[in-house]
Amino acid sequence: MNPAMASGPLLEVDDLNVRFHLRTGTVHAVRGLSFKLGRERLGIVGESGSGKSQTGRAILGLTPPPGEVTATTLRFDGVNLLTAPRKTLRSLRGGRMTMVMQDPKFSLNPVMTVGDQIVEAYQAHRKAGHAEAKDRALAMLEAVKIRDPGRVFSLFPHEVSGGMGQRAMIAMMLVTEPDLLIADEPTSALDVTVQLEVLRILDELVSERGMGLILISHDLKLVSSFCDRVLVMYGGKVMEELPARELQKARHPYTLGLLSCLPKLHSGTRPLPVLTRDPAWLR
Amino acid sequence: MMIDIDDLSVVFGIGRLRVTAVKNVSLHVREGQSFGLVGESGSGKSTVLRAICGLAPTSGGRISVDGKALTSPRRREFYKTVQMVFQDPYASLHPRHTVDYILNEPLAINGERDRENRILGALKDVGLGPAYRFRYPHQLSGGQRQRVAIARALILRPKVLLLDEPTSALDASVQAEILNLLDRLRAELRLTYVLVSHDLAVIAHLCDDLLVMQNGEVVEQTTAEALRSGGVATAYTRALIGAAEGFSRR
């Protein structure tokens, strides 16, 4: 058993289903997903439409209408997220569990400075005066390796680069010292070299503070090089769960297909193997 | 040489807002070759491509295609020789035009004949059946849309395709299909490709020779073989190769 689990799991998900009831019928986005998370790094990997982002949103209670979330268990550190009053959920969300979104261009408030947004996030969850909140925000900007925190504090989102914006976003999500961080494609809008820098910052903060992390991504190789465990999703279902180190021992044809269809720098297979999807996977 | 670029510079804006997006870039592409431009965002790789087809202003240097120096604005013949495929098939197809209309438009502009068969032929080339002809883009998946964009580029039977990140908006499994399609089309139609991508593995898969760019300048010209064997000259290229390997804990 994973030592991280010893004190009881941080997050328990059992038979999670997300359905969207539309005029044209019901879309079953997540189908019976179950997992437990300790203070560890879990990767959720899948292609578009696999339900990976909807899983993250459902945990935080951010499923957009007309979505319907059902589960037998959805528990965060002993709190039943399905029945908890809204007030409890609001204090958890952004406080003890937070989410980093994909593109800083769209997820930061364009008419507020970066610093004010971090201050706002802090004050929403802690009783703190402006001066204290500002100190925390500056310290957090420094923790995400922004060289001149004082200057970046007073910049607007459009004045910072993508990598800088994503670090500001991470600073905002970590300033309340959450126990669980859900990162939904936190680096896909960034350049490869910046991508690794941002991941390194996330990695340090997560291990320093002993947080649980769910990293949602389409990039199987990146996730498996970063996380402890990987869930591979397709069509709303988990195809395979693997320790990240044993990626080469993957058995499921979907995981194998995802791995082999990538062009590789060191071998020029032509044509590339193409993934064939088996409808039986979804039964 | 199919494409010769000598000492190309592209400058946007004036005064305080002046940005030199491309500085003194030279490259030469043989007929039938697949040439790659790789770099991070802001490196000027896409701007080089846009300068070739007249979508970016050239403020210095010379470009010639098939031995002929380019005129500004480009002549109609130019677009029968050179066509472009853009990054995001969700943005590059008109949402209220059917596939048929999208493919017919370049033919109509250029007064081509036998449009019916040309449209069916182009659809067949990219692996879509005639059933897709009267669909709208929203009725197609991302991969099918990119196939339509490629069909639109091929319908005037160009010699050169400029590909600007043709697979980066697509899922991994769909990317494989599009890369295979591009490979097959180049062999069958004897096309010349200039491919822009931030993904070294994609460049190494499709191209033999490539240019690594950073901040509008050429870092080095190298080959896919050198990328594989690690025989690259600059630290920047080595850093890019390292980044493509994934995350590692120090």
Distance between the termini of chain B: 46 Å
Q: Number of helical segments of chain A?
A: 10
Strand content range of chain A = 15-25%
User: pLDDT average of chain B, as an integer?
Assistant: 92
Give the biggest beta sheet of chain A. Answer: 6 strands, mixed
Q: Could you give the order of the helices and strands of chain A?
A: EEEHEEEHEHHHHHEHEHEEH
So, the CATH homologous superfamily of the domain at 3-86 and 219-282 in chain A?
A: P-loop containing nucleotide triphosphate hydrolases
Q: What percent strand of chain B?
A: 25-35%
Q: Could you explain how this protein is built, in words?
A:
The complex is a heterodimer of chains A (283) and B (250). Chain A has a six-stranded mixed β-sheet, with helices on both faces. In chain A, strands 1, 2, 4, 5 and 6 form a five-stranded antiparallel β-sheet that branches. Chain A has a domain at 3-86 and 219-282: 3-Layer(aba) Sandwich (Rossmann fold). Chain A is globular and about 60 Å long. Chain A is 34% helix and 24% strand. The longest helix of chain A is centred in the last third of the chain and has 18 residues, at 192-209. The model of chain A is unreliable at 1-5 (pLDDT under 50). Chain A has 283 residues and is α/β, with parallel strands linked by helices. Chain B is of the alpha/beta class and 250 residues long. Chain B is 38% helix and 25% strand. Chains A and B meet through helix 8 and helix 9 of A and helix 7, helix 8, helix 9 and helix 10 of B.
Which terms summarize this structure?
heterodimer, A: 283 residues, alpha/beta, Rossmann fold, 6-stranded mixed sheet, 5-stranded antiparallel sheet, globular, B: 250 residues, 10 helices
Summarize the SSE layout with pairings.
The complex is a heterodimer of chains A (283) and B (250).
Chain A: E1 11-22, E2 25-37, E3 41-45, H1 52-60, E4 67-70, E5 73-76, E6 79-80, H2 86-92, E7 97-100, H3 104-107, H4 114-125, H5 130-143, H6 149-153, H7 162-174, E8 180-184, H8 192-209, E9 212-217, H9 220-226, E10 229-234, E11 237-243, H10 253-260
Parallel strand pairs in A: 3-9, 3-10, 7-8, 8-9
Antiparallel strand pairs in A: 1-2, 1-4, 1-5, 5-6, 10-11
Chain B: E1 3-12, E2 19-29, E3 34-39, H1 45-52, E4 60-65, E5 68-69, H2 76-81, E6 82-85, H3 89-92, H4 99-109, H5 115-125, H6 142-154, E7 160-164, H7 172-189, E8 192-197, H8 200-206, E9 209-214, E10 217-223, H9 224-229, H10 235-244
Parallel strand pairs in B: 3-8, 3-9, 6-7, 7-8
Antiparallel strand pairs in B: 1-2, 1-4, 4-5, 9-10
